[in-house]
Design brief:
The complex is a heterotetramer, with two copies of chain A and two copies of chain C. Chain A is of the alpha/beta class. Chain A has six helices and eleven strands. In chain A, strands 1, 2, 3, 4, 8, 9, 10 and 11 form an eight-stranded mixed β-sheet that branches. In chain A, helix 5 packs parallel to helix 6. Classes of the chains: A alpha/beta, C alpha/beta.
Chain lengths: 225, 225, 213, 213
Amino acid sequence: MRQKLFPSVDAAVADVPDGARIMFGGFGGAGFPNNLIHALARTGTRNITAISNNCGTRDGELGLMFKNGLISHVIASFPGPHANYFQERFAAKEVTLELVPQGILCERMRAAAAGILGFYTTVGVGTEVAAGKEERVIDNQHCILESPIRADYAFIKAQRADELGNLTYRLAARNFNPIMAMAARTTIVEVEEIVPVGSIDPEHVVTPAIFVHRIVQAKGIRYAG
Amino acid sequence: MRQKLFPSVDAAVADVPDGARIMFGGFGGAGFPNNLIHALARTGTRNITAISNNCGTRDGELGLMFKNGLISHVIASFPGPHANYFQERFAAKEVTLELVPQGILCERMRAAAAGILGFYTTVGVGTEVAAGKEERVIDNQHCILESPIRADYAFIKAQRADELGNLTYRLAARNFNPIMAMAARTTIVEVEEIVPVGSIDPEHVVTPAIFVHRIVQAKGIRYAG
Amino acid sequence: MPDKPRLSREEIAARAAKELPDGSYVNLGWGIPNLIADYLPAGLTVFFHSENGILGMGRRARAGEEDYDLVDAMKVPVTLAPGASFFHQADAHLMSRGGHLDVAVLGGFQVSEKGDLANWKVPGARGSGGIGGAMDIAAGAKVLIVCMEHTTKDGAPKIVKTCTYPLTALACVDTIVTDLAVIDVRAEGLLLRETAPGWTKKEIQELTGAPLL
Amino acid sequence: MPDKPRLSREEIAARAAKELPDGSYVNLGWGIPNLIADYLPAGLTVFFHSENGILGMGRRARAGEEDYDLVDAMKVPVTLAPGASFFHQADAHLMSRGGHLDVAVLGGFQVSEKGDLANWKVPGARGSGGIGGAMDIAAGAKVLIVCMEHTTKDGAPKIVKTCTYPLTALACVDTIVTDLAVIDVRAEGLLLRETAPGWTKKEIQELTGAPLL
């Protein structure tokens, strides 16, 4: 049977090509796949499109990727004032940015996951976010058409995986991870613990195994805020 | 603080008016709010629009409502060959029906829950389901525009509620219940057990309390298939 | 119509089972497809998806073992395989519609040479009819296999140039497994990949409403 | 500008806290709104929503108590109240966008007389800027309260006829709580519901860029 367990974070990301579109889970220091990010930085893969809520906290989270100049385009909701490497690259026009409202970022990824080709929302109407988007009135409400955000890879972080890829998350480290897991073609998860099949109560699985393609245990780098 | 616990199923449904739009959870005999349905039938409330996967199994599930002639319109995916009371009313043109693909039924309810005003899908293109719907091509794929399905009430079944309304479901009795809980203006849940606040692990809550408005314990009627 | 033995429903299911890749996530529809779980080749691991919110369904429940909170999409009590999970029905159909299922196997009334599928409604049938999950699954599975008899009870082809029954989805079918043949739907037409024992291509072509490559 | 005492940020928060109905589900934004949790009237129960996937947030974590898997939308470690729950961020924003939050309280740079809100970007500011959850929350909450100072540091009105800052959402604000007043946005205009101690309507009107009813 196809094997999802990988021996190292480096092996798990070895084939990610230049120009890949990658979703990175995490919010506010919780649930970032920091070990996968470091492994990706070690490969030197370039020209990445990063889809993530924010753009790093100094060297933490995606910071290293921007520091090393590996990301060329970002789709994000809140790059962040402490994302200094991103901000430098952005100011130097070495990185382009699409700013997306946070819930719409989630919803556009979920649309990709769910085979939805577009959806209408009132969020962003009358704002910069509406620029270039189709507008219409539905039920007397002005709304805009939003499109799915797809990705080649999702790099996510979970607390626990069984060997099939069923995942659980710790506290608010859940955040974007389950949505990204569903939205990408290949989902790579770093977990704190790999447990035998059958150890997770089927009612408590948050991300079912069908969405997970590569599993690697990584008790390593952790950034707080 | 507003009190969500109701003393009886009859009290929980007492104010449902004639003409209400009601979502009914359940699939294949699992997770139907049978006690709430019986209570609603006792009120004699009429002209109900029922939104549900199927239309009853003989006297079970929604069967009683059709038997008593209380439902006038149905939005369903699979009314079912054993929904004999529905089929009789439908043949007699006493009930109208909108047939919806099952996943699109879920997605249209979720759209209502999520403040999405419409979405494009390939499901149903070229079929009877596409009749009267806007068609367009996105990314070289033919798709149709689907609209949200909203409701005044959701009648759902859960295994366990805490006193705030956090819910868990047993096995595959989860089915439509969490989606309907999110999509209706007033969600009424019948549960097997009410537990003290704090008894459900926050990571295991399936339906957060914000979606639940009335809770009633009802270990009563159960139909199998 | 040649009076030769055809594959039984169980044999069609067993043949279709061989199309499933090891480790794949699979949805089985009503009818013949639902028999496939009993005919998996030895050593093959497949994870069964049920659109009511189960991944990792096991065998059907035996007498006395039934739990009516644990039923499949046919409303039949089932068991769980190790590593199963439950989720709500919107996520279940996100799986079917979003291209996450490796293979779906559905029954069919008609399949056209372009891979259009009709499997939910017989023209003129009484009652309301019902769609269920078929349209979502047909639109979204990576690979769609249809299992059906090659002809109707009256001997009319079920593989046709254009479906006359109400459609389930356009251009969705990849492979057709019948009691006479295994046929792949290709851009250039219907490729006869395999014939049932004792049957010739010519005989099968005569019972097929569209040209076989 | 009259040189009289105005409400402090904490007093604005305390005043806004009185607008929250008992048992309500509430999201608190950056800035003054985030102080509200510390100033709830005695006996009032409110459930705090955080758009990173928490319902039922408790107080902020004390020194030594921090768990960085349990942070709020400002990335600050928090605790849980009894009956809390976790969910993914799409469901968190389904709550904000779908009208499930009873009240959201956001900070503001400008509010127009029609209730348009500008609170995410200062014109000409350096850097990328960032939207976060504000647009989803502003578009979806049943009741939206904005807490802000009545005027800028330079004394210019922040309540204006038309916003000149980049907009967050149109016609979304229901109530404005400032260091000088409580104002309701009505179809007929801005209703001055309450004035800070010692301030007259005329004085407040002079510091407001749109007519007060």
